[in-house]
Amino acid sequence: MSGTIHLERELATDVGQPPAQRERRLRGTVVGLGIGLAVLLLGLATPYVFTHTYTMSLLLEVVLLSMLALSVGFLARHLGMISLGHIAFFGGAAYAYGIAIMKWGWSPGAAFVSAIVIGTLIAVVMGVLVVRLTGMGFLMLTLALSQALYQLCIQTSMRPITGAHDGLLIVVDRDSRFFGLTPAEVMNPGLFWPLAWVALVLCALLLWVVGRSRFGTVLEGIRENEERMRFSGFGTFLPRLAAFVLSGFVASVGGALFAVNAGYVSPELLGFGRAGDSLIAAIVGGLGSLVGPVIGTFLFVYAQATFNLGGNLPLLMGISLVLVLAFLPGGITGTAGRLYRRFKPFVARRFGGSPTADKESR
Amino acid sequence: MSLFEARGLTVRYGALAALTDVDITLEPGEIHGVIGPNGSGKSTFIDALSGRRRPSAGQVRYAGTDITYRSARWRRRQGISRSFQRTSVFGSMTVRAQLEMVARKNHEPDLDLIIDRLGLGPVADQACAQIAYGTQRSVDLALALIGRPRVLLLDEPCAGLVADESATLLDHVKELCRERDVAVMLVEHDVEGVFRVCDTITVLNLGRVLATGSPAEVRANEQVVRAYLGSAA
Fold this sequence. Notes:
The complex is a heterodimer of chains A (about 350) and B (about 230). With about 350 residues, chain A is mainly α. Helices cover about 70% and strands about 0% of the residues of chain A. Chain A is built from 16 helices and 2 strands. In chain A, strands 1-2 form a two-stranded antiparallel ribbon. Chain A is globular and about 60 Å long. Chain B is α/β, with parallel strands linked by helices and about 230 residues long. Helices cover about 35% and strands about 25% of the residues of chain B. In chain B, the strands form 2 sheets. Chain B has a 6-stranded mixed beta sheet, sandwiched between helices. Chain B has a 4-stranded antiparallel beta sheet with strand order 2-1-4-5, with helices on one face. The longest helix of chain B has 18 residues, at about 165-180. Classes of the chains: A mainly alpha (about 350), B alpha/beta (about 230). The interface of A and B includes residues 15 and 221 of A.
């Protein structure tokens, strides 16, 4: 394109393109949902492939923590906002589950639903306070508010409700059922896997579809140029709040499931350490794609299980974060995508495939 | 009653008065140029009119009502739109995606006409950050033109363009605005262009109105010649 403005009245011949584009977009969505469904079904076989309980417990941890990383990644990708506050929804929902069971005497099912609702409500309250901010202000305020919840939780005066530093052991009625599982089965990673896996895939698909929708376009506009959005007639507060609450909902689902499976909650679930870990996992995996945070969480849990013998995990995480930030911009998935794009023409030439097939699989 | 007017508009940055007691009126379909040397308050003026900066005193009125403290968003929804001197577009989005997004919000029935007139058809499917600067200026303008605004505030639309480009751009702005019956407040550095396309011209100097009138009257005004136009005019 030359540097001149094209003011000559050249009749644009591609005026009739939008419907075709819309159709392509719709087809992309259908294909994506199809792939999601296939992944969903394939993943259900995991407990039959990895029969070892320890392996399954690690994979289950990956899935549950992935929901936290996924929610943080969604906000980073679509609004460019890095949150350290999502731990409050994850941990808040987990605590809500424990409190509903132990203090209110609710059934596991009701407690689970209320945990997600409460986690999401915490997201609404925090969102109202923070979504006007961007960058460092947003980061620091989300951190401050989530740590305020942590402090509240460990107060001695809160001991009757939250158990303070001890947390809560969640003991459910022996005859109760959670999606058909007995209290003992709920703690078995292989038997609990289908629930967690379905929840993760559905949440991921939900975020993906929202990201592709018109609402997702508005979010992108706000991320790119908030001021111009306002001068184009858009409100920017409500879309930001909605995105924040949606990602808070996903983190809450993860936290509630975590509490159901673990059978206990402790203040560490609300702590800064976990918030930082999930953010680092999301960055290492790649904030630019949907699966990046999941891959990052997988690596984190794997590293935690394998290399943590001397208590050196934070050191290793620090090193890997530095390496990723310095050499792999966009994280693992971002780098993989770049390599793929670079080698695609080569591969296409070599093997005669179509190079134009999937350009917008993000 | 004018369509759009400023009364006694004053903007102070601390002790510095960037704009003092400015009165200006805009009638339907009028193209009103605002010129002045650097630092004369032109950009501050547009910012105060468009809701980007709160005036320290004075009023902005639209169709008879005081809108001084209305938000930028409210103004846009009511038909007051602006462009930006420093190109303000959505870099990661394609030209078409961002225009469509804004068109949906502002109920623009004929986006293709705008795309066509501003020559954006060939770049419609490219990411805005990837296209030439001059073309980005046209996207900025297109974003402001969408939705048939009644008042268009243009903040130096020709900034950064070479003479030829700015001449054609101004001609097309004029044509589009006449067609769509838009009243335009055109703040511009390109004095020749302003004299050519505007019906009325206001000259600002040091934050005050030096003169207002038809191009011929302003050109003949001694104060204006002394302060700004010099012998070149």
